[in-house]
Design brief:
Helix content: over 70%
Shape: globular
Number of strands: 0
Radius of gyration: 23 Å
């Protein structure tokens, strides 16, 4: 029972933080809660398990180091947010999107668009940070609430990410379990496609029955965008080039850096007035002023006046500095995960899940539950997939089940639920990028919420779940 103490402390502290700080909880209160819970875990390790500080320090250092790529990606996403906005790329996407998407079909269209883009490029993060941001602006103009818009965007993006052969999580889940990649993807379709179909139907019906009256906002938004930015279909070449780079499997960091750099050049050439506005009236009117403006767009909060207050909020970006609370929280979460791993408390808790296994349904349910639990405790979907597969791999083999059942269950529980946890790297990233709190969009992420349930339901019916000895 000692293994549960750090989690009980953390949950109690987070409840207090949310009650006191509300939406500002992630600005520092949650980080402090994680550090306190880490201290409790370390104290138990020292006093009960007699661990040395060297063991704890090594594990915590490794965990923090493992999130370095995610931190760099977050910084680049912050820079992309600024440069793609000030260059007119996102405003152009919003402008043309407002002319194409009608209110009745907006939610289902957004979900499908994000699903296709994410499936092609293999990245829910990139999809949400680019297409998702544009769709959020369109949805606001049409009169939809932030939760519904973000839920449709995230549902589609994570569907595509889950089934894409270019996705990191898809490749990871198949490789750590030992399932051929396309065997893994084909088997996942049996739970993923029905789940996505249900989500699509919900968004379709919701869009048809909702009473949204955003026509006036649409006209105002389009007028404000056209008067503030240079709107041109040629600007859409930048996301097209980015998509080509991703399709050719260029490294994510390289793609994000080049997307930022190209957008910065476009901004200097096409939107110099907006660059000078960001630099400020007291800046150098020449080259140095433009340089100051574009650098600020990358790292600082930017505000552009469009004459429409709602649109002003939409085109405001936070840059790299806006990602710092998220990065701070990721580091603290990894410190907590490192302490739990070093003290063996995480392994002790996982034994409770394995004790629940009696047959197919309980096996899949325990796997899915473990992945969700690890998303909450380790705060990282990659750790969730790796640790869950490692803990259950031998048990699946012992019970005679195919490896593909394990790899699918890891993704049904691990990949899609990570974005629903406020302090998970995915939940933190998407809430920061979209500017919508995790708990605000959570009730509307129907694909993510239903995936674990459908996975267990399919196991209950035993659909195409076979023992190794019965394979032909």
């Amino acid at each position: 029972m000692l293994a549960f103490i750090p989690f009980i402390v953390l949950i109690a502290l987070l409840v207090c933080c949310i009650s006191v700080f509300g939406n500002a909880t992630l600005d520092g209160a949650s980080q402090v809660a994680l550090i306190i819970a880490t201290g409790v875990s370390v104290l138990i390790g020292w006093s009960v398990k007699r661990l040395t500080w060297d063991n704890l320090d090594k594990e915590i250092t490794q965990k923090v180091a493992s999130c370095t790529p995610s931190i760099i990606i977050l910084l680049l996403i912050g820079a992309i947010g600024g440069t793609w906005m000030v260059s007119g790329i996102v405003p152009t996407m919003i402008y043309y999107g407002l002319q194409i998407l009608s209110p009745q079909w907006f939610l289902v269209s957004s979900c499908i668009i994000c699903a296709i883009v994410s499936l092609l490029i293999g990245s829910s993060w990139t999809t949400i940070a680019t297409v998702g941001v544009a769709l959020l602006g369109i949805g606001k103009a049409l009169g939809f609430s932030d939760g519904w818009i973000a839920g449709a965007i995230i549902s589609g993006a994570y569907f595509g990410d889950k089934l894409s052969p270019l996705s990191d999580t898809t490749v990871l889940a198949s490789s750590v379990v030992g399932t051929p990649l396309f065997t893994h993807i084909k088997y996942m379709m049996q739970t993923t496609v029905p789940t996505f179909t249900v989500a699509i139907v919900i968004f379709l019906i919701s869009g048809l029955v909702m009473d949204v009256s955003g026509e006036g906002d649409v006209a105002q938004f389009m007028d404000g965008l056209s008067q503030t930015f240079v709107i041109s279909p040629w600007l859409l070449l930048v996301p097209l080039v980015m998509g080509i780079m991703i399709a050719r499997r260029w490294p994510s960091l390289v793609v994000l850096f080049l997307a930022t750099f190209i957008a910065a050049l476009v901004a200097l050439g096409v939107q110099p007035d907006r660059i000078r506005e960001i630099a400020g009236s007291h800046s150098d009117p020449g080259f140095l002023g433009l340089y100051e403006g574009i650098i600020r767009a990358c790292y600082d909060k930017t505000s552009i006046s469009t004459g429409v207050s709602e649109l002003d909020q939409l085109v405001t970006t936070r840059g790299m500095s806006g990602m710092m609370p998220t990065i701070w929280l990721i580091i603290c979460a990894q410190v907590f995960a490192g302490a739990l791993t070093a003290t063996g408390q995480l392994a002790d808790i996982m034994k409770y899940f394995q004790r629940l296994v009696r047959g197919t349904v309980s096996l899949v349910a325990s796997t899915v539950g473990s992945a969700i639990f690890l998303n909450i405790t380790s705060a990282d979907q990659f750790l969730s997939i790796i640790l869950t597969s490692s803990m259950f791999k031998e048990l699946y083999a012992k019970m005679g089940y195919e490896p593909r059942l394990l790899s699918r269950s890891c993704e049904d529980g691990g990949t899609v639920t990570s974005v629903l946890v406020p302090w998970n790297t995915c939940g933190l990233t998407q809430s920061t990028v979209l500017g919508v709190a995790t708990l605000t969009y959570l009730p509307y992420c129907f694909f993510n919420l239903l995936s674990p349930i459908v996975s267990i339901t399919v196991a209950a019916f035993g659909w195409k779940i076979r023992k190794m000895k019965n394979l032909s």
